[in-house]
Amino acid sequence: MTAALATGLLLAAAPTAAAGPLQQPGALDRSGCSADYEATAVWASGFSAQITISCAGGGSLEDWTVEWDFPGDQQLTHNWNSECSQSGPHVTCTPLGDFNGTIPPGGSVSFGFTATGSAPDDLVLY
């Protein structure tokens, strides 16, 4: 199941291309970039998921940050292609330096995680 998210992507740095000013937190579009959440597997005690950040048009991003709040008592157990931390329901994920820190125009970056509890139908990323 793939769900386009209703709110936005919080960026840690300004776009690298001249794509206009950053919007306020809570807006989905950042210089033509968007994020999608997909629960990729579900089992009795947990789930795995993938988040993909895509940049269309002429904008690109450096040093992105993606944050969300789990709707229940879910707890991260593992993540890949990102550095993630959790405090209560709040999760913050950042890139692995040069490996995936820059998203070029027309490019995308994906990272994933496993967590305990039930998979949300969607996550509100900001």
UniProtKB/TrEMBL annotation:
Quote the Gene3D superfamilies the UniProt record gives: 2.60.40.290
Ranges where the CBM2 domain occurs? 26-126
**In terms of domain of life, where is this protein from?**
Bacteria
InterPro entries from the UniProt entry: CBD2, CBM2/CBM3_carb-bd_dom_sf, CBM2_carb-bd_dom_sf
* Keywords from the named record: Signal
Q: Does the keyword Signal apply?
A: yes
Any matching Pfam family: CBM_2
Matching entries from SMART domains are given as:
CBD_II
Source organism:
Salinactinospora qingdaonensis
Its signal peptide is 1-19
Q: What is this protein called?
A: CBM2 domain-containing protein
PROSITE patterns in alphabetical order: CBM2 (PS51173)
